[in-house]
Structures are given as C-alpha cells and as structure tokens.
Amino acid sequence: MKFVKHLVAAAALASAGSAMAATYEAGVLVSGSPQSLTYAVTGTGSFSDVINFDIAAASTGQVNAVTFTLFPFVQNPITGLTLSLYDGANLLTAVNGVYTLAAGTNYSFHVGGTTNFSGVYSVNYQLAAAPVPEPESIALTLAGLGVVGLVAARRRRV
Q1: pLDDT tens-digit profile, the chain (158 residues)
Q2: Cβ-contact 122, 38 below 8 angstroms
Q3: Half-sphere exposure of 157 (CA within 13 A, CB side)
Q4: Sheet holding 59-70, edge to edge
Q5: What pLDDT score does 50 carry?
C-alpha cells in the first residue's frame, strides 16, 4: 500500500511539469533598427528567464511583444506570458510605451510563462539615441528665464 502511495505521488509530480529558470548574458545592445534576442525553452511547465544586458549609449527604448515559436512552428502556446524590464532590482515603467535607459547600467529582461512544448522565444526591441537638446533650445530657455527674472524685479520696484 505504501508503494502505491509513492507511485501516485511520483506520477502527480511528473505530470505537474517542472519550473525552469535560466539566466542569459546578452552583452551590450546597440541602437538602430529593430532587433531580437532569441532563446530556447526546453521541456514543459513554467519558466522564468532573466536576460542581462547593457547599452552602448544613453537611449530610449521600446520593447514589444515576445514571440514564441515551437518545433514544428506552432505560434504562441505560452499562457500567462510576462515581459518586464528591470534596472538592477527596480522594475522600470514605460512612459507612452518608451523606456529611458542610461549607459553603464545593468538592465535585464524578465520573461516568464507556462508552456506545454519546448520551443524558442524572441524578445523584440528597438533602441534609439536619447534626444539631446540643441544649443538654440537651451539659449531660448535661458533667455526666457532672464525675461521672467526682469519682470519679477520690475514688479518689486513698483
């Protein structure tokens, strides 16, 4: 009887699937045209992968849907798919779908979900150089602050 209980417990554990976790090093990501990072999920069950990376220069970035391809090429069999972007231990939030990223900072994508098949997933992203203000814009801003200061000083005298 004890053997049957152990056999049932082993079968339940085997059918429940297993949790998989992997950490990948993507290196330094460069800005430009849309890019993808592609990794494999082997086996079935839940997975939680971390993809560490840095960027070459201060950038704005957009990360869109993760695609998952199975062998033989069945699309999106992941349930509960999540994709998050972290700056160290801090979860980053996008403003209007855009993240602002600084060079020399350790970033990571956290990808997770549950699948019934082995397959390959891709994280699609695009980085663009962060906008740098033109000298004329800075000069105009400083001139405006100067005018506001003159008006305030004039009002004090009156």
Answers
A1: 444 333 333 333 344 445 688 999 988 888 777 888 888 887 788 889 999 998 887 787 777 545 555 444 455 567 777 888 899 889 988 777 788 888 888 999 898 888 877 777 788 888 877 666 677 877 888 888 888 888 888 888 87
A2: yes
A3: 6
A4: 35-41, 119-129, 59-70, 99-101
A5: 93
Residue type, 102: A
C-alpha span between 24 and 18 (Å, rounded)? 20
Q: How far apart are CA 58 and CA 103, in angstroms?
A: 5
What's phi and psi for 67, nearest 5 deg? -105, 150
From CA 21, how far away is CA 117, in angstroms rounded? 15
Enter the tokens of residue 21. 């976790």
Helix (H, G, I), strand (E, B) or coil at 94: coil
User: Which are the contacts of 90, defined by CB distance < 8 A and separation ≥ 6?
Assistant: none
Q: Which CATH code is given to the segment(s) 18-132?
A: 2.60.120
